[in-house]
Amino acid sequence: MMWLFLRKQKYLIDFTLSSLLRRKGKSLGLLAVYILIVFMLASVTLFTHALRKEAGLMLQASPEIIVQRMQAGRHALIPADYLQRIGRLRGVTQKEGRLWGYYYDPAVKANYTIMTAGQVAAPLTEIIIGTGIARARGLAVGDYLTLRSQNGEAFSFEIAALLDEKSELVSADLLLMSPQAFRRLFNVPEGVYTDLVLSVRNPREVRKVAEKLTLQLPDTRPILREEVLRTYDSVFSWRQGILFVLLTGSILAFVIFAWDKASGLSAEERREIGILKAVGWETADVMRMKFWEGMIISLSAFMIGYLAAYAHVFYASASLFEPVLKGWAVLYPQFRLTPFVDGLQLATLLFFTVLPYIVATIIPIWRTSITDPDAVMR
Amino acid sequence: MLIQLTDIKKVFNQGKPNEFWAIQGVSLEFEPNRVSCLKGASGSGKTTLLSMIGCLSRPTSGRIQLGERLISSLPERFLTDVRRHTFGFIFQRFNLIPGLSVLENIMLPAYPLGLPYKRLVATAQHLLHQFNLSTKADNPVEWLSGGEAQRVAICRALINDPQILIADEPTANLDSKLSYEFMGLIDELRQTGKTILITSHDPEVFDSAVVDRVVEMHDGVVLDSSLKDVT
Ligand SMILES: Nc1ncnc2c1ncn2[C@@H]1O[C@H](COP(=O)(O)OP(=O)(O)OP(=O)(O)O)[C@@H](O)[C@H]1O
Ligand SMILES: [Mg+2]
Known about the structure:
The structure holds two protein chains of two kinds.
Chain A: H1 2-22, H2 24-60, E1 65-71, E2 74-76, E3 78-79, H3 81-86, E4 92-98, E5 100-105, E6 110-116, E7 126-129, H4 131-137, E8 144-148, E9 154-162, H5 168-171, E10 174-177, H6 179-186, E11 192-193, E12 195-200, H7 206-216, E13 220-224, H8 225-263, H9 267-278, H10 283-315, H11 322-325, H12 343-369
Parallel strand pairs in A: 6-10, 7-9
Antiparallel strand pairs in A: 1-2, 1-12, 1-13, 3-11, 4-12, 5-6, 7-10, 8-9
Helix pairs in contact in A: 1-10, 2-8, 2-10, 2-12, 8-12, 10-12
Chain B: E1 3-12, E2 20-30, E3 35-40, H1 46-53, E4 61-66, E5 69-70, H2 76-86, E6 87-90, H3 102-107, H4 117-130, H5 146-158, E7 164-168, H6 176-191, E8 195-199, H7 203-206, E9 213-218, E10 221-224
The site of magnesium ion has 5 residues of chain B, from helix 1.
């Protein structure tokens, strides 16, 4: 019984395959359009998903709480003695001051993020830069980069090293210098920082610590990592949303295309269905055969499209999406996202690409195949 | 298997302005193991009647009985089953599927039965051999000559070993020599125990010695259904 069933399906699939080969031009055209749609959809979902994950990972390494001083509603420098004034707060495992700032470089019309680090050998003359900056300015290790301070004074720095390429998503626009150099360039006196960062081991204590901070230091504002994560999430969802609006158009076009292809069964196909029925195929056999045809087309399109999207996103840095998705202006990183596949996401994609096609093809064929087959006698 | 038609009527486009009574009350019997031929002017309803007997369409009213079974009231599912096991069709335009090989075309009706592939191929090749087509098995059907295509259509009609063969204008696309040969093949098939129903305008067919009985139709009714005198 089982064997009978399987053999039957095999005959139907064989027949379907040879039908597809018989209509090579049409099948290939359909497949190409289909692959393109899957490719676009899959690229967007894979890309935004991966970015969000990456951003999450990146933030995982950042401190739980950032304390900024506010003056007249603006972010202001924070005196070092605030560190002492915070004192010993329960749950805080580490606290320190940070120096950082944005530097607008008119030569490439982009902002660098300047941070401080201790590992620069010659504190006042050496810097480490991200690969994005190096590319934009055409710099290599040993070259010099001149930055101007607030009062117009020029400082020349030697590039001591480039930042690791692996972290390029984070570090493309990053420039590291010693605290001394930073204070000179930005004219920041000793004894103040840009902000303070606190590490809190237990995530449940974060909010309590933040509350105590606002009481102790009324002129500061604590920024919690979990809030930043949420903002990131909504930004990414928003960008993804835009792309989806764009894509809905193409999906719609595809559905219409599939519907048209299917409902406008050619006279030849209709005749073929008539012949099959006349020689003893049941309506159900015809449907099964067409179902397999739909499965073969849509699954192979899905697989090829998805794999292509996978390669595009994870090995070609989603280069097609640069104009839409990049938030890094000129210093767009040539990043490598960590490849991953999400089951739910895969299922959703499958649902939205394969199902409409199968339905759109099966219904008109069903309508044709329940009519009397005697038309083939005429 | 005796085929009995009782007061068969068939109306197209019922209730519409272009309503048309193609068959207007036909009662007939076809004995098993005979060759019967429906003849009559174009539009007289021959094809319509054959397609109802062959379960390709249903009568509007009347009864069709096949041996013990009343097929005129069977639901579609069972009709297909009867069609598949009882009838083989040879169409005027052969209706082979282009692009498929001769062998594949012949095996087509057997696919839904799910027989083992080897057995299926063996049956098909046996038929091809019987009809002198062995060398053509792997050719696409569009390469065949008219006579060969006709024989392939016969092979396809026979693959599920039906008891009744239905042929609608089988010689319309053949010259008189091939038509004569076709009647020879029909004779052989009758001798293997098949019941054969043919429609034709072609004297080569209805005057042939192979035909046991001629049914003459006109405007949806039977004029004459006598057995032929054997000369
Ligand atoms: N689906 C249909 N709708 C409307 N009229 C139909 C339909 N099928 C057949 N007819 C009409 O029924 C009549 C009988 O048709 P049928 O095909 O049975 O004739 P026929 O005797 O086989 O003719 P021919 O010798 O030309 O093949 C014709 O007048 C035809 O126009
Ligand atoms: Mg006819």
